[in-house]
Each structure stands twice: as structure tokens, then as C-alpha cells.
Amino acid sequence: MTCLNSWLGDASLGSKRNRSAVGPTCNGQVLNLAARHKDGRWVMVYLGGKASFSINLNKLAAGSTVKAFWIDPRTGEPQTAGRPANSGSESFSTPDGWEDALLILEASSS
Fold first, then answer.
1. Domain of residue 92, CATH code
2. What is the pTM of this model?
3. How many domains does the chain have?
């Protein structure tokens, strides 16, 4: 598992609840960064290599649905990552064949 921080599901970097950005993480030579909107409207996670991790979706805006998608930094092309429930932890893995990846989670009222 990639260690990001407590609101992403792993507490390896501490438990500061209101931290809006995290990085770099403890995954050797690979750069992994994460940021969250102060009101929980979105989460952005950059992964510098193949990784599996979990995100605590309770940290997104309450009562919202979640839209999750990957962006390939090489091409800018998006790829859906589903519509997880806005509660509990959700596991994600970078898409196969990608050198690096950006995961975006957006909270919306629809």
C-alpha cells in the first residue's frame, strides 16, 4: 500500500485531520502527492508509479455522490474510476500500463 495520510486511509504520515496537501510519501524513490479541498469538494492524488491504496471517502463533502476518474499525465486523457459511495474506504489501483497517474475524486450533489 502507498502511504499517503490518515484522510487517504493510511496513517503513515500522521493524523492531521485538516491537512490540505500531503507529500512526498514514504514509497522509496517514487513521488506520490495528495491534496484535498478544504471543504471536501475534491481530492487529487498523483502517483509516480504503479500503486494500490485506499481513500477514506468520509472526508469528502457530506451527502454528496462521488465521481472518480484517472488522468494519464502523458496524454491528458481521462478514464473513469467509477462512482464509489461517499462513505467508508474505497480501494484504488493505478491503471495498467501507465507510468504515472492522477486520480481525481469530485463530490457533487447529483
1. 2.60.40
2. 0.74
3. 1
Give pLDDT, residue 100: 94
What would the mean pLDDT of 5-25 be, rounded to a whole number? 41
Tell me the three cell numbers of residue 74. Answer: 502523458
107: number of Cβ within 10 Å? 21
Give yes or no for residue 107 having a pLDDT over 80. yes
Return the amino acid letter for 73: P
Supply the pLDDT for residue 110: 62
Question: Which domain, by its residues, includes 76?
Answer: 6-108
- Identify the CA nearest to 63 among candidates 91, 40, 37, 89: 40
In-domain check, residue 1: no
Q: CA torsion, points 87, 89, 94, 96, in degrees to nearest 10?
A: -90
Q: What are the φ and ψ backbone dihedral angles of 6, each rounded to 5 degrees? A: -65, -35
Q: What is the C-alpha separation between 93 and 96, in angstroms, rounded?
A: 9
